[in-house]
Amino acid sequence: MAVSGTQIYSNALRKLLTCDIRGSIFWGIGLGAVFLNQLVSWDAQLQRDLDQMLEKAKAANERRYFDDDD
User: Fold this and answer.
1) Any idea what the Cα angle at residue 17 is, between residues 15 and 19, rounded to 5°?
2) Per mean pLDDT, which range of 1-15, 18-32, 56-70 is the poorest?
3) Given a cut of 70, is residue 17 above it in pLDDT?
4) How far apart (Å, rounded) are the C-alpha atoms in residues 48 and 41?
5) What is the pLDDT of residue 1?
6) How many angstroms separate the Cα of 4 from the Cα of each of 9, 36, 39, 43?
7) If we measure between CA atoms, which residue out of 39, 24, 18, 26 comes closest to residue 10?
8) What is the value of pTM for the model shown?
9) H or E segment at 46?
10) What SS3 class is residue 70?
């Protein structure tokens, strides 16, 4: 029997909201914010790296196909 990731997340969130430790909700929110910030910065870095690789590939293809016409 497979459990979806959404169900696991939902169960974890429900447990977090009903914990006996009052500060745990703030820990959860704080960790979620840190995770989201890291995810956004990772995505931005990934986009810069991808753009750089595409530029290098485009330059290599132009050298290969257009500069060899001698």
Assistant:
1) 65
2) 1-15
3) no
4) 11
5) 45
6) 9, 21, 22, 24
7) 18
8) 0.53
9) helix 24-66
10) coil
**Collapsing DSSP states into helix, strand and coil, what is residue 57?**
helix
Q: What pLDDT is recorded for position 65?
A: 86
Say which residue the tokens 């840190």 belong to: 34
Q: Are 18 and 24 in contact (CB under 8 A)?
A: no
Q: What percent of the chain has pLDDT over 70?
A: 64
| Residue 2 token pair | 């497979």
List, in sequence order, every beta strand (DSSP E) within 1-70.
none
Running DSSP on this structure, what letter comes out for residue 18? Answer: T
Q: How far apart are CA 16 and CA 14, in angstroms?
A: 5
Amino acid making up residue 55: E
Give me 69's structure tokens.
């016409």
- Residue 13 φ/ψ region, left for φ over 0, alpha for ψ in the -120 to 50 degree band, beta for the rest: alpha
Contacts of residue 16, Cβ cutoff 8 Å, sequence gap at least 6: 24, 25, 28
